[in-house]
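DATA SHEET
Item: assembly model
Revision: 1
Owner: S.N.
Input lines:
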Amino acid sequence: MNKQQRNTRRTLALILAPVLLLLACLYGLTYGSVSISPGEVWSILLGSRPETSGLIIMDLRLPRVLLGLLVGACLAVSGALLQGVMSNPLADPGIIGVSAGGGLAAVITMVVLPQYSYLLPASAFAGSFIAAALIYLLAWDNGASPVKIVLAGVAINALLGAVMNGFMVVFSDRVQAVLPWLSGGLSGRSWHHLGFAAPYALAGLALSLLAIKPANLLTLGDDPARLLGLRAEVSRFLIILLAALLAGTAVSVAGLVGFVGLVVPHAVRLLIGGDYRFLLPVSMLGGGALVVFTDTAARTWFDPVELPAGILLAGVGAPFFLYLLRRRRLAG
Amino acid sequence: MTRITHSDVPALECRRLHYQHGGFRLNNIELKVPRGQITTIVGPNGSGKSTLLRLLSGLSVPESGEVLIDGEALRSIPRRKLAKLLAMLPQSKQVPENLTVRELVAYGRSPYQSPWKHRASTEDDQWIGRALKLTGTAVYADRMFHTLSGGEQQRARIAMTLAQNTDILLLDEPTTFLDITHQFDLLGMLASINRETGMTIVMVLHDLPQAAAFSHHMIALRQGTLAAAGNPRQLLDTAFLQKVYALSASVTYVEHYPVIIPHQTNLLNHLEE
């Protein structure tokens, strides 16, 4: 791809991503067991309150769409950042155990301290960060090699999964409350969840814009980045911290939703290249669009059964992951 | 562009430098890099050339002893300030995909930019333009880096270090993996940059005749110690080759260019029969 092609693609992506996001939101607001026309949705959003459809939009669909938007954006940005600073295109918070760390911490909070549910994002963040730091330390040997990160991450992921399962067996009497959360998705989520997750998510997304420059410099390699005046280790640490905050926030509200952090940034990278000035905002919007769309699809396509969005995403994400592995093998 | 410094203060200086990492060690290195000149570091494989360059750049920290830059202790200078005093072309060839030459060169301005500013200032653009011009890369500034030949890529990488607008430039084996034409091309370019800008250049080279022909000052390492330092044309002789490389050979000059002739020519006899 030459410069002109790349710039055309960038412009297209910057126009298409917000359009897709809007369409996904519209889809999420209008479709469901009761269809509500876009015009009606618009008037409801502007303040008119027809009895049932008003309730459906304001109490059910709108918070869910907004949550999907935040969760998707958080996961996609988290993945984009991790892929950069771990110099590994397969670093997804779900695959390398960062989400599992947050998930374990969230399960412990829900089971042991159910009265402190407002602490969920904070504890999920702490769990995600500990997992990320552990993976990085385990993979570190004079620099962290991409292969080692994935291997250490997969091992940590398995370990955390085992601990989580063990925990649920021991506290089997209290697990019922956790189950809907665990399957991953936005079923039954409402303003309450949005209220406790949004501050973390918005803070994380805003901070991620500050990570653009260091993340770009780190793609040159550690030594070149240092020679350009970047404190490479500090920057990488802070970016991992940020990625954990984003993944942890998403996990705390939507449970273990996989593959968004892998699929979205990677697809964007294939389309417009790895420059974080474009990769990050486009992934943010694309991730939001993907989760809102899949959540709506999971909610409506299999009526009367409501599928967890996590299952549908894994159904799309797993084949894509295999495709990436295959592409890499062919390329390498 | 030239900063006001006493010309008698060396650009870089090592004082009783000790360093050990893995198999590489440096012992009691004591040396001065003259300001405004081209200095070449030579020595056999594993003698510590690249290690020394890393210490000079601040990428590695000595166990004891000190590196001074413009007479100031290098380790007391914050990274970002150091990036305005000293640039280095490392051996790593890693460049992200989908980058034009100009965009790569623009990374050289990072030490001067705040983290939330993404547009190059007019001053940045001037330095980027100058770097492109000095390296002859201006003609393909808008091409994608990955579509360039090895020689062109190396020039573009050097342009990035020049955009940093430093008084000192270090290069770790800048000619490795280039064919002979591009090697001379690159060394000629560095010589003219040194002449035009008065920049202090320190590089690691493997080719002794090139080192002697293209530098004012030569530093020879052997097994992590300083074996010799001085004017390359005065240094390079039979005794030097024996001492530094354990090589039995003599040196002659053909049209002012040094040529090294090994004494064990009998090894070649069967080729001539």
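QC remark: The interface with chain B takes residues 1-3, 6, 209-210, 212-214, 216-217, 219-221, 223-224, 226-231, 272-275, 277 of chain A (CB under 8 Å).
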